[in-house]
Amino acid sequence: MPTDDWTYEDYAQYALDAAREVVPYVPVVGPASDMVSDLREGDYASAAFNGAMLAADLSPIGPATKVLKLIRAIKKTARAPLLASAATQRARIRRIAEVPPGYAVHHTIPMKGLGPIPKADSRAQGLWRNNPAFFKILPEATHRRVHGNFGAEPYDPLRRIWHGTNALQKSAAAFATSRVADTAENLARPFPDESTRKR
């Protein structure tokens, strides 16, 4: 544990050691770190496995497939348009996804607006935020804390974002971030010196 006589180097090493304990359990970062370690050690089978885990963490394909299945089910059973009113859409999702009691169907893009997104009439049909891609099923207690209503203590902004967004949004954000980072890393690489190339 840190003491009064620690130097900046001691604190840096302590933080690095603590991070190493946490990294294996962090989505995207954990598999990437493990894959690099496996490649350095020559354990290619384990590296391939961790590479697959990394791809799964970064890819929004799995969550998107679930959303598409839900949309197909809605189109088969519903008489109203796909983008129905908020109450109708929640009821549909609750029925089709067989949401158990004690769980809520949450709008990840709130009807009361969010930043530059204006407030919307929850009774209106055709709203893009009523698309199944922007819903999440979560426990009622968590739902209350995300919104800070019914006397529940609201989450801090970071946890509100984490609990208030669904798997598709998280994976899409992770995928986009990884693409930007990869592009930036590739652009930062120096071009090979023509004079040093083998003829």
Using brief descriptors, characterize the structure shown.
199 residues, mainly alpha, extended, disordered C terminus
Report what the structure shows:
- The longest helix has 22 residues, at 167-188.
- The protein has 199 residues and is mainly α.
- Helix 2 packs antiparallel against helix 3 (44-58) and helix 6 (140-147) packs across helix 7.
- Residues 194-199 have low confidence and may be disordered.
- It has helices at residues 8-22, 29-41, 44-58, 61-77, 86-96, 140-147, 157-164, 167-188; strands spanning 103-107, 135-139.
- It has a two-stranded antiparallel ribbon.
- The radius of gyration is 23 Å and the shape is extended.
- It contains eight helices and two strands; from the N terminus they run H-H-H-H-H-E-E-H-H-H.
Sheet with most strands: strand arrangement: 1-2
How many individual β-strands? 2
Would you tell me the structural class of the helices and strands? mainly alpha
Write down the Rg. Answer: 23 Å
Number of helices: 8
Which regions contain 5 or more consecutive residues with pLDDT less than 50?
194-199
The SSE string, one letter per element, is HHHHHEEHHH
Largest sheet: 2 strands, antiparallel
Give the termini distance in whole angstroms: 57 Å
Mean pLDDT: 79
Anisotropy-based shape: extended
Residues in helices, as a percent range: 40-55%
What is the percentage of strand-forming residues?
5-15%
